[in-house]
């Protein structure tokens, strides 16, 4: 379902991305006892590796093949993150096949399919960049190499409005306050506003506003990790980015993020310790919001 106000979330970890990255294999069927007149091993469950469509949708499908008897087929699309991998979309059918789609947010995804007769299959885990390519890369880049390019800003970077040494504008720090209020409800420590992450976040917001696009990947091909490193941020073990477009206040953008499972997961990840918040607009155009998270 497409929301009127856009939000996208991205995640990358420099550590292992969990067991699906190492244990998942190409779609294969688990054989089980057959029912009725089915020959052993003839009925199987298959599941396709997730991919990005030309309309920036993540899609995966599963099917029961060679089966003469009906059974409920359940499909779950999962995102590989530190800890327990969340199910980002699920569905079930008795028709024999099912496709799942959802708006793309960069990350590592895999699909799991099972039927109620004990058969199952798990797809490969792949990193999806949200560019509509037919074959996403299955391996993450631990240390991205940023491509230097001129910095484009819709407006000059606002100066901090608080005391000397304060990071960010009043709007950006209100987002941080709301983030930490939500984290406190979940038992997470507050995030600190990091000047380098803020520079990366504001730079991306102003670039999106100036060039009229909405994506984690910059027009020059840089990822959010490229931008974070280019801003001078070093070290760190895990990173994430949330972006949004069109919300007019810190409260409204936080409401959009908290009502989206992927964005909420980034905000409520207790592993992160620092954040950068950047908001920018081009003239009278819509506000563009960016949050960059890091564990350091």
Question: On the 0-100 scale, what is the average pLDDT?
Answer: 78
Main sheet record: 5 strands, mixed
Low-confidence stretches: 13-40, 132-157
* Strand ordering within the main sheet: 1-12-14-13-11
User: What is the helix fraction of residues, given as a range?
Assistant: 10-25%
Name the structural class. Answer: alpha+beta
Portion in beta strands: 25-35%
The sequence of SSEs as H and E is EHEEEEEEEEEHEHHEHHEE
Given the C-alpha coordinates, what overall shape results?
elongated
Backbone CA Rg: 21 Å
The beta-strand count equals 14
The tally of helices reads 6
**Distance N terminus to C terminus?**
35 Å
Could you explain the architecture of this structure?
Helix content is 21%, strand content 28%. With 296 residues, the chain is an alpha+beta fold. A five-stranded mixed β-sheet has the order 1-12-14-13-11, sandwiched between helices. Strands 5, 6, 8, 9 and 10 form a five-stranded antiparallel β-sheet that branches. Strands 2, 3, 4 and 7 form a four-stranded antiparallel β-sheet that branches. A hairpin with a 7-residue loop joins strand 13 (274-280) and strand 14 (288-295). The chain is elongated. The protein starts with 5 loop residues before the first strand and ends with a strand. Residues 13-40 and 132-157 have low confidence and may be disordered.
Strands, helices and their partners?
Blueprint: E1 6-13, H1 19-23, E2 44-47, E3 51-52, E4 57-65, E5 73-79, E6 87-93, E7 97-103, E8 107-115, E9 120-122, E10 126-128, H2 170-185, E11 192-193, H3 195-211, H4 224-230, E12 238-245, H5 250-258, H6 261-267, E13 274-280, E14 288-295
Helix pairs in contact: 2-5, 3-4
